[in-house]
Amino acid sequence: MRLPIVTGAFFALTAVMAGAFGAHSLRNLVSDRSLEVFQTAVTYQMYHAITLLLVALLTGFGLSRRLLGLAAGFFLAGILLFSGSLYTLVLTDIRWVGPITPIGGVCFMIGWALLLAAGTRHQVNQDRG
C-alpha cells in the first residue's frame, strides 16, 4: 500500500500549494465565483489526499487489500478528474472540461462505497471467525 501513501502525501502537498496560490495569486485575476470553484477543487483534493493516507493505514486492520486498492484507485481518479477539471476550468477558461467534473465526483462515490464494502466485509469475516 505504498502508492496510496505516496499519492496521498503528494496530493496533500499540492493542495496546500494550490490553496496558497488561490489565496494569494488568483484573487486579483479571476472572479469571486472562479475563486469559489478553485477552493472547491482544493478542498476535495485535500479531503481525498487524506483519505488515501487513511486507506493505506486501514490495511493494518485486516481489511481486504483488493477493495482498499480499488478504493484508492477511485479516489486518485476522482482527484485527477474532479479537482483537475475544476483547476483547468478556472485557470484556462476551457469550458469543455466542465462535464468531466461529475465523473470525478462519481469516482469519489465509488471509492467511498468500496471503502464501506471493505469495512462491512471485514466485519462479516470477524463475526464468522
Number of helices: 4
Q: How far do the termini sit from each other? A: 25 Å
Order of helices and strands: HHHH
Structural class from helices and strands? mainly alpha
Report the sheet-strand fraction: under 5%
Please report the total strand number as a whole number.
Answer: 0
The percent range for helix content is over 70%
- Write down the Rg: 17 Å
The average pLDDT is 93
The biggest sheet, with number of strands, parallel, antiparallel or mixed sense and barrel status, is: none
**Overall morphology:** elongated
Poorly predicted segments? none
Q: What features would you describe in this structure?
A:
This protein has 129 residues and is mainly α. Helix 1 (2-26) runs parallel beside helix 3. The two termini are 25 Å apart. It is built from four helices and no strands. The model has no long low-confidence stretch (mean pLDDT 93).
Helix/strand layout:
Elements: H1 2-26, H2 32-58, H3 65-92, H4 100-128
Q: What's this entry about, in short?
A:
It contains four helices and no strands. It has 129 residues and is mainly α.
Q: Which terms summarize this structure?
A:
mainly alpha, 84% helix, elongated
